[in-house]
Amino acid sequence: MDAERLTAALGAWRAALGDEAVHTDAAATAAAGIATFDTTQTIPAILYPASVDQVRECLRIANRYRAPLYPISTGKNWGLGSRVPPRDGCAVLDLSRLNRILDFDEKLACVTVEPGVTFHQLHRFLADRKSALFAAVTGGSPYGSVLANALERGDGEGPCGDRAAHVAGLEVVLPNGEVIHTGFARFDGNRSAKTNRWGVGPALDGLFMQSNLGVVTRMTVWLSPKPAYQLCFTCKIADGAIGTFVDALRPLVLHELIRGNCITLWNSYKFLARAGRYPWSLTQGKTPFSLREVKGAEPWFAAGSVYCASREAGTAAQTVIAQALGGRTSELNFIDTASLTPELLAMLEPGVPREQNLRTTYWRKRCEIPDDPDPQRDRCGVIWLCPVLPFDGASLLEVAGIVEGIVRKHALEPQIGFNPTSGRNLNMYITLVYDRDVAGEDARAMACHDELLQALATRGVLPYRLGIQSMDKLPPTDDGYTALLRILKQTLDPNDILAPGRYDFRESPETK
Ligand SMILES: Cc1cc2nc3c(=O)[nH]c(=O)nc-3n(C[C@H](O)[C@H](O)[C@H](O)COP(=O)(O)OP(=O)(O)OC[C@H]3O[C@@H](n4cnc5c(N)ncnc54)[C@H](O)[C@@H]3O)c2cc1C
Description:
Elements: H1 3-17, E1 22-23, H2 26-32, E2 46-47, H3 52-65, E3 69-72, E4 91-94, E5 101-105, E6 110-113, H4 119-128, E7 133-134, H5 146-151, E8 167-173, E9 179-181, E10 215-222, E11 224-225, E12 229-237, H6 242-254, E13 263-267, H7 268-275, H8 291-295, E14 300-308, H9 311-325, E15 330-335, H10 342-348, E16 380-390, H11 393-409, E17 415-420, E18 425-435, H12 441-457, E19 463-465, H13 481-492
Parallel strand pairs: 2-4, 3-4
Antiparallel strand pairs: 1-2, 5-6, 6-10, 7-11, 8-9, 8-10, 12-14, 12-15, 13-14, 13-17, 16-18, 16-19, 17-18
Bound molecules: flavin-adenine dinucleotide.
Flavin-adenine dinucleotide (FAD) binds next to strand 3, helix 5 and strand 10.
């Protein structure tokens, strides 16, 4: 955008928010342009509105001066772009000051939050009230946003872990500054605004998830009751047996004995990276590391929980799971929670955001892992790719094999995890982890990401979530979907001021 319009917009934003809430200094704007992989976008300013009215005013000013904005809630979208907009020249609209928990209902198990409410904050809020409820938390930063993670259709652990499926009543500021509410929340005083997912008539919530059609300033998030008895189990799955294991697992999840997002499966490299570091001395500094060459096998690991209403229900579930998943190729262990120390028991407590998975991002770094891991600050290279698969052992085996081959070719280790979101669907996450301080690694890892995306796309496998590295990389279609999306964008945001390039597939060829 031209300098004159930007100067005028900055003046208007300062008048609306106060000088202290508009940052334009070089250090701050440069920092906002850094992700966990190479980026080139420049960011002219960061705006910190403190209320919904200020968000509305920011958008009105953006329209007046055609100055684009990119909303973030807490900006911890590590591996997918952090705070960096997909397009150059957008001011970041940082919503972290909107951090109130607006409403809480212990009986109906729901909480209404603003964008800046973090997983850590929500956990403390529930703990302080000695609540019998918990929120599905992610393996990412505890200081990530509960609301933004759901908007991105992220995954948490626990029965409400398919996060976007367990929210209601979004408050959305449209690009022109108007406010709407989804579901029953649009009717004043409606009793079901927080507890009913769809409302009546076309459900608009989906338009504001993974999109650039509005800024979400409020959301009701559903919580789960802490189980009366939690049956926890782990499993080591022999090399080559993961496909059979997945097929044995599917009926248990289809029957909802094990619920969606209540079991996670990791390959050896992801498992190793959480526990330790790259074996630099064993490999004499060479990359990539092959566990199969050293140990002769690359097993997978599963960890799951059944959230039971009673111990008796847990005992019955244990019998069924043992019959289905125990066997020659899997070492299944049920954890006897009664015999655990309070410290170990605390580690299994659901809904507690923890930083231990962030350790996996330091795998290739030669520095110590700090007590407060922050891969972006410490220049850990992290690129995520999130393919979605049918819940089928053969598909999983095929995709994992393709991924392993391509990742190795680029001299990286394949860190792969996946979890069933239901008895039909597996969400996979491939993490490319490297050291940004090693020359050439940024480019090599991104080339690997792009090749993976292409290779999987040609086999009918696409991501369920995109980062700024992949927004423009989906294959073209001959369906009218993209054209309809363009009409919606043009109608709601004719000046294209909200997050241009974010999930709008504007680089896709016009086919209809
Ligand atoms: C080791 C590791 C483990 C991870 N584990 C998980 C996991 O288990 N599950 C998971 O889902 N993710 C995981 N992640 C990915 C990521 O870190 C999280 O999803 C994180 O919650 C996203 O950051 P955030 O909550 O700060 O969202 P933000 O960065 O604030 O937002 C994400 C995007 O959503 C849009 N957005 C944000 N707020 C709004 C708004 N109010 N209105 C409109 N648009 C908005 C923006 O475009 C923004 O870029 C992991 C990452 C790493 C590195």
